[in-house]
Amino acid sequence: MYAVIKTGGKQYRVAAGEKIKVEQIAADVGQEITIDQVLAVGNGTELVLGSPLVAGASVKATVVAQGKHDKVRIFKMRRRKHYQKRQGHRQTYTELEISAVTA
């Protein structure tokens, strides 16, 4: 059984036992969280779509880690104008392990 969930402004297709990295969630490592924004639930042949959410569906997940992605380097330059700007950014994430998908 799998589900399509929405968290952090993005959508993810998840199934029990998978690990995913999502936008940072305020939760401690080892804490179990429930994601209620389920857009679709399916199991092979049948698919239940929500409008916009599936009623009564939820996904249980455990927080495995909190961290930062690799640095994204930003470099801006204007030729012949003696202008250069360097910048960097490391986006934070929360790694989740999906334990159960309930419809």
UniProtKB/TrEMBL annotation:
GO terms for cellular component: cytoplasm; ribonucleoprotein complex; ribosome. GO terms for molecular function: rRNA binding; structural constituent of ribosome. Keywords: Ribonucleoprotein, Ribosomal protein, RNA-binding, rRNA-binding. The keyword RNA-binding applies. GO terms for biological process: translation. InterPro entries: bL21-like, bL21-like_sf, Ribosomal_bL21, Ribosomal_bL21_CS. Part of the 50S ribosomal subunit. Contacts protein L20. PANTHER family: 50S RIBOSOMAL PROTEIN L21, LARGE RIBOSOMAL SUBUNIT PROTEIN BL21M. This protein binds to 23S rRNA in the presence of protein L20. Belongs to the bacterial ribosomal protein bL21 family. HAMAP family: Ribosomal_bL21. This is Large ribosomal subunit protein bL21. The lineage of its organism: Bacteria, Pseudomonadati, Pseudomonadota, Betaproteobacteria, Burkholderiales.
